[in-house]
């Protein structure tokens, strides 16, 4: 466990509110959509470009003396996608509810939707250069050649999974051009970066879509109707942590045999039913303990564990440390 860390709760309702919340959390000098100078995290140069609707690109350079945990708690829009590239040396960790954090290393890309509850961790004592992209639904559909089907396939996957992949030499070249332009005083700097950013987003979406499509094509040719049914089942399972239904009751509710229910669910969502539920419960608990001052006993009850000892045992088995250890080593400054 890392003691020297800071939590940052972002408000991504608008770009202005995003940068206001970053500035409020870490300090530094804010000039428009740019935050520079010494902050509680270390020295930073964060800049965002959002001159067209439904699209944002940020270029971020940081030398960190604290570990930063970043959680987005305000972007509830339909179908937004986030992409983050680690440029150069350095590592970003993604907490997706699994016991082991996912690593995003040099020249790798992480992609996830705003619906997916992902906490990003930027470890201390490293210099990071990051390029981030945020695309709203309309921009995504446009970049996918106006294919609603392609968009739905991609967003359905990203609502439950994160995708980490190596970037190509072509996209690396575009990123290097973007960073070079950011550091220049060329006329039309912002417009050029937006143009390059859209080209980068288009290449990333092509790469991401083909990878997701290839993965999903292995799901035993499940029909769209059946896919929608299993997403209804998923929502039904997660609607009330205090009254989680049994497999037999779910099978009866939706008119499906128990064996088929278990096999299809694992095929679509990548986990057995109760492991899937536990993952969601633990990630919600981790976020509440780390990002709020809600008492641990109340957190346990909110995610369906009436007995604190049972909750602590399951939490430790899942993450490798107890809820109390997480709480004691968390600096709450996001509220």
Automatic annotation (TrEMBL):
Single GO MF annotation: DNA-binding transcription factor activity
UniProt xrefs under InterPro entries: Homeodomain-like_sf, HTH_AraC, PchR_regulatory_protein, Tscrpt_reg_AraC-type_HTH
Gene3D superfamilies to which the protein is assigned, alphabetical: Homeodomain-like
Record's keyword terms, sorted: DNA-binding, Transcription, Transcription regulation
Domain HTH araC/xylS-type as annotated: residue spans: 231-329
Transmembrane segments: none
Protein name: Helix-turn-helix transcriptional regulator
Species annotation: Flammeovirga aprica JL-4
């Amino acid at each position: 466990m890392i003691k020297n860390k800071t939590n940052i709760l972002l408000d991504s309702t608008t770009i202005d509110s995003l940068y206001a919340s970053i500035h409020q959390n870490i300090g530094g000098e804010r000039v428009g959509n740019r935050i520079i100078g010494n902050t509680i995290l270390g020295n930073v140069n964060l800049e965002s470009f959002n001159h067209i609707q439904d699209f944002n690109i940020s270029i971020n350079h940081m030398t960190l003396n604290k570990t930063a945990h970043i959680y987005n708690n305000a972007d509830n829009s339909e179908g937004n996608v986030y992409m983050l590239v680690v440029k150069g040396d350095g590592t970003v960790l993604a907490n997706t509810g699994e016991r082991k954090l996912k690593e995003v290393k040099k020249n790798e890309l992480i992609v996830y939707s705003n619906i997916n509850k992902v906490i990003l961790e930027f470890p201390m004592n490293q210099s990071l250069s990051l390029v981030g992209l945020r695309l709203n639904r309309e921009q995504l559909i446009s970049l996918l050649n106006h294919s609603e089907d392609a968009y739905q396939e991609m967003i359905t996957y990203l609502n439950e999974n994160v995708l980490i992949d190596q970037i190509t030499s072509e996209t690396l070249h575009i990123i290097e051009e973007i960073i070079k332009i950011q550091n220049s005083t060329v006329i039309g700097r912002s417009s050029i970066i937006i143009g390059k950013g859209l080209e980068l987003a288009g290449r990333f979406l092509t790469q991401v879509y083909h990878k997701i499509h290839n993965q999903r094509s292995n799901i035993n040719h499940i029909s769209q109707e059946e896919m929608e049914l299993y997403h209804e089942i998923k929502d039904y399972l997660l609607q009330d942590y205090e009254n989680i239904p049994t497999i037999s009751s779910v099978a009866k509710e939706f008119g499906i045999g128990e064996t088929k229910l278990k096999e299809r669910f694992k095929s679509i969502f990548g986990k057995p039913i109760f492991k899937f539920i536990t993952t969601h419960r633990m990630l919600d608990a981790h976020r509440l303990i780390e990002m709020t001052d809600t008492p641990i006993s109340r957190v346990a009850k909110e995610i369906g564990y009436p007995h604190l000892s049972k909750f602590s045992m399951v939490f430790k088995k899942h993450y490798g440390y107890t809820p109390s250890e997480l709480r004691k080593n968390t600096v709450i400054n996001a509220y």
